[in-house]
Amino acid sequence: MLSIKNVTKRFSGIVAVNDCSFDVEEGTICSLIGPNGAGKSTLFNCVSRVYSIDSGNIFLNNKRIDNLATHKIANLGVGRSFQLTRVLDELSVTENLVLHTASGFNFHLLKRAVTKDDEVKAEQVMEFLGISHLRHSSMKELSYGQKKLLDLGSVLMADPSFILLDEPAAGVNPRLLETILDRISLLKDQGKTILLVEHNMEMVMGISDKVIVMAAGSIIAEGKPSEIQSNKEVLEVYLTG
Question: Is a pLDDT exceeding 50 seen at residue 196?
Answer without folding.
Answer: yes
